[in-house]
Amino acid sequence: MGKTIAVANQKGGVGKTTTCVNLCCALKEAGAKVLLCDIDPQGNCTSGMGIDKNTASPNLYNVLVDGVNAEKAVVGTKYGDVLPSNAILSGAGIELVNADKREFVLKNALADMKQKYDYIFIDCPPSLEMLTLNALCAADAVMIPVQCEYFALEGLTDLISTIRMTKKALNPALEIEGVLMTMYDARTNFSMQVAEEVKKFFKNKVYNVVIPRNVRISEAPSHGIPVLVYDRTSRGAVTYMELAKEFMRRNRPVPVR
Ligand code: ADP
Ligand code: MG
């Protein structure tokens, strides 16, 4: 049975998509079977994996709204399998409102996929509405990227209370997978201060690996490739490979003694 991880933070531009694309690529390289499910209508992780989002059909919208089998929508790439999305998905939030068990449409759609993959990552949109709620109900755990900047913690209160509420009312098994500090800039004092504050709050849930601000990371998406492929020796690529190692270490089953 695979593990499903929602990568969420209702703040935009914190590194959700970047983390999904590069962590999936690094995990695939390490031999894991990975599916990246793009539930953001912006379709950034679809294009970041080299898929033309505008012609991707069927896509996640068809899966969620038309009941198309998820397997039919999966696109295989060199960097991992993708359930693609595009702007059409923005209508799904409203259409799902009237669906039967509306919070569980994605979970049900991905049920068979859990048998086929080791990890399913869900790249969430920058909101806490129906699509993100579906991701939180489909997930075993939430990964939270936090950008090292002022006000980083401010928006997290809403996210944490949404996670708590989801756990209480809809998905009792939901856990926090980990908190990832992103766009760390060692030259600025506040980057360090934010990282310390986040550690105080989330304690050992914070990954030891911290993603640096790195220009190669921001260049890679325009080429439709992960930074691991774009510039393997860049600090960004190396750090995402380290993150994959830490992620796998944390997910290794503990032997019963
Ligand atoms: P989100 O999915 O949370 O909205 P993205 O992953 O799309 O955020 O990142 C927002 C922007 O910042 C993108 O242009 C991306 O290329 C860039 N970016 C993300 N992480 C880094 C990083 N570590 N260093 C430099 N640029 C980054
Ligand atoms: Mg994104």
Secondary structure topology:
Elements: E1 3-7, H1 16-29, E2 34-38, H2 44-48, H3 60-65, H4 70-73, E3 75-77, E4 80-83, H5 92-96, H6 105-110, H7 113-116, E5 119-123, H8 130-138, E6 141-147, H9 156-169, E7 175-182, H10 189-202, H11 215-219, H12 227-230, H13 235-251
Parallel strand pairs: 1-5, 1-6, 2-4, 2-5, 6-7
Antiparallel strand pairs: 3-4
Bound molecules: adenosine-5'-diphosphate and magnesium ion (MG).
Describe it.
The chain is 42% helix and 14% strand. It is of the alpha/beta class and 257 residues long. It has one domain: Rossmann fold (3-Layer(aba) Sandwich). The site of adenosine-5'-diphosphate has 18 residues, from helix 1 and helix 11.
| Derived structural class | alpha/beta
What small molecules does this complex bind? adenosine-5'-diphosphate, magnesium ion
Strand content: 5-15%
CATH level-4 homologous superfamily? P-loop containing nucleotide triphosphate hydrolases
CATH topology: Rossmann fold
Query: How far is it from the N-terminal to the C-terminal residue, by CA?
Result: 23 Å
Mean pLDDT: 94
Count of runs of 4 or more consecutive helical residues: 13
- In the CATH hierarchy, what is the class? Alpha Beta
Helix-strand pattern: EHEHHHEEHHHEHEHEHHHH
Quick recap:
With 257 residues, the chain is an alpha/beta fold.
Notable traits:
42% helix, binds adenosine-5'-diphosphate, globular, Rossmann fold, 7-stranded mixed sheet, 7 strands, binds magnesium ion, alpha/beta
